[in-house]
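Blinded run. Sample ID left blank on purpose so nobody reads anything into the name before looking at the predicted structure. Input follows.
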Amino acid sequence: MFRNREDAGRQLAGKLKGRQLYNPLVLAIPRGGVILGAVLAQELGAELDVVLSRKLRAPWMPELALGAVSEDGRVYLTRSAREQLGLTEDDLASERRYQLAEIARRQKLFRGVRPQAPVAGRSVIVTDDGIATGSTMIAALQVIKGQHPKEVIVAVPVASPERLIEVRRWCDDLICLFSTEDFWAIGQFYEDFTQVEDEQVLDLLREFAPACQAAD
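Blinded prediction complete.
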């Protein structure tokens, strides 16, 4: 059990300290992941930015994640959505448009604070406050891998064991502090899992903005 996202971030940082990292960049999935990302960036002397991806919800059951869409528009569908339900991207076209509109809103908001950080040749640490289905993480990793980082490290406090297997295929290393079959929601592993608002994300991005930009 973690006290809050800051506590989880500090514990993750402890697993990464002492590791050789190349011009490290922490990419956090908003919103909750940015709290952990800020702690990692501070503890590791890394740059902080966001990577945007959004869950694709089932039309008949909005709480069910069938996949995710990344900020470049690519769709990742879970294995069950592809194999058991036989869904295609066309089946989720309306939901994809809706989530891309939200991604565009966040791009405008967050990129107004800091431009997108370069990825090529760097040690990239991708974080979120947990992995449930793994869809948003994998969608984000697809985009990052296409930008030619030196290495991609996924660092999360908690995850479903089954989802970890899938996520490992998309990164060079994966650090997860706690994984259990008794997993029904990320929030069950936090004493304080208060919702993170856009303004908190903006404040952290401003705090960690590159010095040259902060001076502009």
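Unblinding after everyone has recorded impressions. The first strand starts at residue 25 and ends at 28.
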